[in-house]
Amino acid sequence: MENETLKIQNLTKIYKSGLLRSKETIGVNNASFTLYSGEILSLVGESGSGKSTIANLILRFIQPTEGKIFYEGNEIQEIPTIDYYKNVQGIFQDPYSSFNYFYRIDHMLKQAFKYTLKGITNRRKALESTLSIVGLNTEDILGRFPHQISGGQLQRVLIARALLFKPKLLIADEPTSMIDSSSRADILNLFKELKEGTTYTEGISIIFITHDIGQAQYISDRVLIMKEGRIVEEGETEDVFLNPDHPYTKNLLACVPSIYRKWEFDEE
Ligand SMILES: Nc1ncnc2c1ncn2[C@@H]1O[C@H](COP(=O)(O)OP(=O)(O)OP(=O)(O)O)[C@@H](O)[C@H]1O
Ligand SMILES: [Mg+2]
């Protein structure tokens, strides 16, 4: 069996809000799954199904109500180690909210060096490699402020910053939703390259969160379908999309433009 990068065991998150924290909302309900080394696993589901809650629990932005998360066999504690934060990087939907408007791009990228590379030459090389991996021209981008580049370019900068840590696991939560459709395919292909390994990084395991079945089908080795906080279906991408078991998955697939509905053509 391949190595287990991440193991999620009976994970539950109940949010408490309102007066005296009396209102309870279930974010994730008893979810268990494993991410193996070197694979892209997609979490797919409608809005509010608990996808981001799982991402935020893995990244320890929030704490679980119940359940455990293991990274490479070790249980993640309430405050994870610096190594965990370096190895597990998040990429989010809105690149603009991930950056401080008052800093130039090079300043924000260099913040990653605090815990990683020493030496001006090493750092310069790392910047050049990571920017070229994400398809950006170094000179062009580094001196600008976030509002002086496009959303697609900023999302690439965000990916470059994550790569500077040489992560082993990326949690990408709807990373293409702010990006125009022509750059979307490039970003998806970039994730595929990152999985295989680049000149700067080893192969990276990826949790890819999307409500777009087409993207999940294109990018992932395996998929998890979520509904109302629960994982309702799990399997190899082809199996789930060609022979969905759960009625909810069938409904989801029925809403996808026919271009993606391969299974209909296969039945003919
Ligand atoms: N901080 C919070 N406080 C209270 N409830 C929350 C909080 N964050 C999320 N929830 C609720 O938890 C449930 C799961 O939300 P989550 O953000 O994980 O969904 P999602 O699948 O990422 O949705 P989307 O596709 O819209 O991003 C929703 O019912 C949501 O309203
Ligand atoms: Mg979300």
Please name the CATH architecture.
3-Layer(aba) Sandwich
CATH superfamily: P-loop containing nucleotide triphosphate hydrolases
Distance between the termini: 36 Å
Overall morphology: globular
Mean pLDDT rating? 90
Radius of gyration: 19 Å
In order across it, which strands form the biggest sheet?
6-7-8-3-9-10
Number of strands: 10
Uncertain segments: none
- Identify the CATH class: Alpha Beta
What binds here, in terms of ligands, is:
adenosine-5'-triphosphate, magnesium ion
Helix content: 25-40%
Q: Given the structure, what is the number of helices?
A: 11
Q: How would you describe the oligomerization state of the chains in this entry?
A: single chain
Beta-strand percent range: 25-35%
Fill in the CATH topology: Rossmann fold
Structural class: alpha/beta
What is the succession of H and E elements? EEEHEEHEHHHHEHEHEEHHH
Quickly count the domains.
Answer: 1
The main β sheet shows up as: 6 strands, mixed
